TrEMBL record:
Similarity comment: family membership: Belongs to the phosphohexose mutase family.
InterPro entries noted in UniProt: A-D-PHexomutase_a/b/a-I (IPR005844), A-D-PHexomutase_a/b/a-I/II/III (IPR016055), A-D-PHexomutase_a/b/a-II (IPR005845), A-D-PHexomutase_a/b/a-III (IPR005846), A-D-PHexomutase_C_sf (IPR036900), A-D-PHexomutase_CS (IPR016066), Alpha-D-phosphohexomutase_SF (IPR005841), PGM (IPR045244)
Annotated protein name in UniProt: phosphoglucomutase (alpha-D-glucose-1,6-bisphosphate-dependent)
Complex formation: Monomer.
Protein's GO biological process: glucose metabolic process
Organism: Urochloa decumbens
Length: 585
């Protein structure tokens, strides 16, 4: 089966540049830059490249080079074709009036995967050739996605490029990505990205920065590091973090070990590698096998976590206990005001993506704060954050975050959970039974009920069959009526989810096919474009249960009647030939 991973170059583009909010008293909590795709905003200034020699390289449009929701993602070998990457970067600048980027400052970094170093040099030279005044680039080209957002906010930069394919594998045979008539490239030497410092060519400046320091400073302003340190230094508490040989390996030791005092042995797969150690840096039960094996073993640590390729996703585990991403964001939101200083005044609002379970909805109702259900895609959260309507949000795809930046943030989620555990155990003496991850989850279910949830991914399906299945489901929805029976379930409504942004009034449609039943159960179907080969069908299954005596049921057991019904209604096997999913979460 063809590999479905890619590397992506994402443009992160800001519309405002305030100081990051802080958790201390009197701190500023104003709106922050929104990040959108293919729209840069750079401060205008006189030409910054008058002293540079600019080479004009003839080129032509590339067939099939189409920007997606989060940038451009293709196989590495595609990006290595002559001028392929250069064409796309130049096209971004061509799409903007010169006054929007000349003399501006942009941030550049990535997850350390194969081809990033070569790509960084190409991007630097094209930016210089088009009049950008300064580039801030992480040492060795390393910056996690959350750190890029943090640097943009702190340095008041105008935007940035993230070289990453997120949670997909890396290497020369896998994918690369980036979250025309001629190419303008500055005739300047390659920049030494291994040494922190400033390099000038004429009026163009490249500053190589520490990839960790600005992000670490932000985390110290969000969380009570001393509270977390007290937990991690306990002799009766064990913690393990799996960086999956990806970008958070560069952050794990400075944050967890040096700042928070964790045992150095707590970091698993902590060295970032260009091919991620031939692994798939996707923090879920399928791909984080080493961590899962450890956490479900006989002598499991008390708390385990992992992050993905570019550091914006997370997985949370207790001792022989998995916390679904849907439950994780709900539990963080329910405990945030008590455990995290940044939220000491409460939350402004909560939001989730449509496929994510309704666990967060129930927290919002109890807290009496606004709640939003948005399409999949972090940009929808960003608009709400910029308008001051949203504090904490999450997606079932292992993405969790808050308005401290405008990206989901894997390490932030880990620190949030450590804060909750530290707060719940701060008065426990050594030798007393500690409140565990499982305890926190079960107490949450007892208060709010449990939303059993699972996602089935069918990766690299033939696009034709996948599209025919979705067309079939649209026909089923068009002919459906409330009150119809689907096995033991009674239909409340079925639709193709659409969303009108409450901030700017923009509307998006065809965001997922939903079947919602009268008991609160749901099945949702979506096609995902995060791979670079074929189509990924995602099936989401959810059932609410208020009876605490049933909260210990295995999720797959509890959901099996819904799963069987969903597969029957969709005729997934008939259309795709698949009799089992690639990944179950």
């Amino acid at each position: 089966m063809a590999a479905t991973h890619a590397l992506r170059l994402r443009p992160l583009l800001s519309t405002a540049r305030p100081t990051p909010p802080r958790a201390t008293a009197g701190a500023r909590r104003g709106p922050a830059p929104a990040f959108v795709v293919v729209r840069c905003s750079f401060a205008g200034a006189p030409s910054a490249v008058q002293a540079l020699k600019i080479n004009l390289i003839p080129t032509k449009p590339v067939e099939g080079q189409k920007t997606g929701t989060s940038g451009l993602r293709k196989k590495v070998k595609v990006f290595q074709q002559e001028n392929y990457l250069a064409n796309w970067i130049q096209a971004l600048f061509n799409s903007l009036p010169p006054e929007d980027y000349v003399g501006g400052t942009i941030v550049l970094g990535g997850d350390g995967r194969y081809f990033n170093k070569d790509a960084a040099q190409i991007i630097i030279k094209i930016a210089a050739g088009n009049g950008v005044g300064k580039i801030l680039v992480g040492r060795n080209g390393l910056l996690s996605t959350p750190a890029v957002s943090a640097v943009i906010r702190k340095k008041e930069a105008d935007g940035g490029f993230i070289m990453s394919a997120s949670h997909n594998p890396g290497g020369p045979n896998n994918d690369w990505g980036i979250k025309i008539s001629e190419i303008k490239t500055a005739d300047i030497p390659d920049v030494d990205l291994s040494s922190i410092g400033v390099v000038r060519s004429g009026d163009f400046t490249v500053e190589v920065i520490d990839p960790v320091s600005d992000y670490l400073e932000l985390m110290e302003n969000v969380f009570d590091f001393q509270l977390i340190k007290d937990l991690l230094s306990r002799p009766d508490f064990r913690f393990i973090f799996d960086a999956m040989h990806a970008i958070t390996g560069a952050y794990a030791e400075p944050i967890f070990v040096e700042k928070l005092g964790a045992d150095p042995g707590c970091i698993l797969n902590g060295v970032p590698l260009e091919d991620f150690g031939n692994g798939h840096p996707d923090p879920n039960l399928t791909y984080a096998k080493e961590l899962v094996f450890t956490m479900f073993g006989t002598h499991a640590p008390d708390f385990g976590a992992a992050s993905d390729g570019d550091g914006d996703r997370n997985m949370i585990l207790g001792k022989r206990f998995f916390v679904t991403p849907s439950d994780s964001v709900a539990i963080i939101a329910a405990n945030a005001q008590a455990a995290i200083p940044y939220f000491q005044s409460g939350t402004k609002g909560l939001a989730r993506s449509m496929p994510t379970s309704g666990a967060l909805d129930r927290v919002a109702k109890k807290l009496n704060v606004p709640f939003f259900e948005v399409p999949t895609g972090w940009k929808f959260f960003g608009n709400l954050m910029d308008a001051g309507k949203l504090s904490i949000c999450g997606e079932e795809s292992f993405g969790t975050g808050s308005d401290h930046i405008r990206e989901k943030d894997g390490i932030w989620a880990v620190l949030a959970w450590l804060s909750i555990l530290a707060h719940r155990n701060k008065d426990k003496k050594v030798g007393e039974r500690l409140v565990s991850v499982e305890d926190v989850a079960r107490e949450h279910w007892a208060t709010y009920g449990r939303n059993f949830f699972s996602r089935y991914d069918y990766e690299a399906c033939e696009s034709d069959g996948a599209n025919k299945m979705m067309d079939h489901l649209r026909d089923v929805i068009a002919n459906s009526k409330p009150g119809e029976k689907y096995g033991d379930y009674t239909l409340q409504f079925a639709d193709d989810f659409s969303y009108t942004d409450p901030v700017d009034g923009s509307t998006v449609s065809k965001q997922g096919l939903r079947f919602v039943f009268t008991d609160g159960s749901r099945i949702v179907f979506r096609l995902s474009g995060t791979g670079s080969a074929g189509a990924t069908i995602r099936l989401y299954i959810e059932q609410f249960e208020s009876d605490t005596s049933k909260h210990s049921l295995d999720a797959q057991t509890a959901l099996m009647p819904l799963i069987d019904m969903a597969l029957s209604v969709s005729k997934l096997k008939d259309f795709t030939g698949r009799d089992k999913p690639t990944v179950v979460t």
